[in-house]
Design brief:
With 409 residues, the protein is α/β, with parallel strands linked by helices. It has three domains: 11-55, no CATH class; 72-287, Rossmann fold, CATH 3.40.50.150; 309-408, NAD(P)-binding Rossmann-like Domain (Rossmann fold). 32% of the residues lie in helices and 22% in strands. It contains 13 helices and 17 strands. It has helices spanning 60-63, 76-93, 112-117, 129-137, 149-158, 179-188, 203-208, 225-234, 268-279, 290-310, 322-330, 363-369, 382-388; strands at 11-20, 39-46, 52-53, 100-104, 121-125, 142-143, 164-170, 190-201, 221-222, 237-245, 251-258, 315-318, 341-342, 360-361, 373-376, 398-401, 407-408. The protein has a seven-stranded mixed sheet. A six-stranded mixed sheet has the order 14-13-12-15-16-17.
Length: 409
């Protein structure tokens, strides 16, 4: 395997989670009898550019297929975050009527709807067919395709707008097996005075807090600010500012413009690079203990679940997210340990988690069975979920999280 950014072959593998089915490949009841495809799940860091990455064992076209189950609007926190972002970005860069906005990975239109309310002319692009159709129902023009240089070359043929004042994407950069092509495409359709903003989970949170359940097949890359700065710089794009935000366990929002554009001085990028240098993100030592920390989380979670079985206490899970499948498959959790997982998405209810074959049910099953513990696997939405399920206190139910450490709340 060569690094997907710099092409060098000097990679250091620092975590091996074994083989797992793709995390979003939910199963129907009929599919439980069929064989599943398993792929190695392992992370390596390039000793040259320090990009953290997994091999492309499974193609993006296989992951983001017609029945891709993730719909952003199913989480009120996602919708609220998108609305707050739109308010901020429109005010900061004076966007509104006459502004052209492109969102990459626009899903079901959960964010572009707010730009449309501001009077912006919007366009979304997403390869997930069902989510894109939902966006179109909201009146959001959405192309069902993968963003690439080839797509941008054809843009003017089917859309009168081929350059944008703002190009934005939330949690889409990690999904790109061809990073260089993706960034070239953004540069090609960015107006001379345009802005790119991209949000992605910050690598230091993954490593420092051992968020290993955020490792799955559709995330090809994991970024430190140091590396992402180098990547954009190679393509003559300048990251002129960066925000540290709480979403997804700790993320970065970068602000990008064409290089050599005159702008005010921002000190945050340089400060963040220095902080990462002090942490050691450009040293192998920073990554060496990750496997040991993962194994400790596995031990503590399994020990807790076995203790509850002995005590005849019931534990169920909340959140049929991709991260749920990583931790359940790594810990070899099955229905005899956790009988079901609750989710609010109608696109997931009635299906089964890949590998573990744990059924996904609606919230009524939680109210009916009244378990002693609810394991919040979608821990990035912990506050939202605890507020939604606060009624479990009526039967003295408790919440549990496993990452970064086992905690009964």
């Amino acid at each position: 395997m060569n690094c997907r950014f710099c092409g060098k072959s000097d990679l250091y593998k620092f975590i091996n989670l074994g083989s797992m089915p793709p995390s979003n490949s939910l199963l129907t009841k009929e599919q439980l009898r069929e064989p599943e495809s398993y792929y190695p799940l392992e992370l390596s860091v390039c000793r040259s550019c320090w990009l953290v990455q997994i091999p492309e064992y499974i193609k993006a076209t296989e992951i983001f297929r017609d029945n891709y189950p993730y719909h952003s609007s199913q989480s009120p926190a996602n919708v609220s975050h998108a609305k707050e972002y739109v308010e901020m970005i429109c005010k900061r860069f004076e966007l509104g009527k006459g502004s052209h906005v492109l969102e990459i990975g626009s899903n079901d239109g959960y964010m572009l709807q707010w730009f449309k309310e501001k009077g912006c002319t919007v366009l979304g692009i997403d390869p997930a067919k069902e989510a894109a159709i939902e966006a179109r129902k909201k009146g959001i023009p959405t192309e069902i395709a993968f963003f690439s240089v080839a797509w941008t070359n054809n843009l003017s043929k089917f859309d009168p707008i081929s350059k944008f004042d703002l190009i934005c994407g939330i949690n889409v950069l990690a999904h790109q097996p061809d990073l260089n092509d993706f960034i070239k495409g953004m540069k090609a359709v960015l107006k001379p005075n345009g802005i790119i903003t991209i949000e992605f989970p910050h690598l230091t949170h993954l490593v420092d807090e051992c968020q290993f359940d955020t490792i799955y097949s559709e995330h090809y890359s994991y970024f430190s600010f140091t590396t992402i700065h180098e990547i954009f710089e190679k393509h003559k794009l300048e990251i002129f500012d960066v925000d540290e935000i709480s979403e997804h366990g700790g993320s970065l929002r970068i602000y990008v413009q064409h290089a050599n554009k005159i702008s005010a001085e921002y000190s945050q990028p340089a400060k963040l690079i220095q902080r990462e240098y002090n942490k050691g993100v450009t040293t192998i030592a920073y990554y060496q203990n990750f496997q040991r920390k993962v194994n400790k989380i596995e031990y503590n979670l399994m020990n807790f679940l076995l203790e509850q079985q002995i005590k005849r206490k019931r534990v169920i899970a909340y959140g049929a997210a991709a991260k749920t499948n990583t931790i359940f498959n790594y810990c070899r959790i099955k229905p005899n340990t956790i009988p079901f997982v609750v989710d609010r998405s109608p696109y997931k209810i009635g299906k089964y988690l890949p590998g573990s074959h744990i059924p996904i049910v609606d919230e009524e099953e939680l109210k009916r069975t009244k378990p002693e513990y609810v394991l919040i696997t979608a821990w990035n939405l912990k506050e939202e979920i605890m507020k939604q399920l606060k009624y479990i206190r009526e039967w003295e139910g408790k919440f549990v999280t496993a990452i970064p450490k086992l905690e009964v709340l």
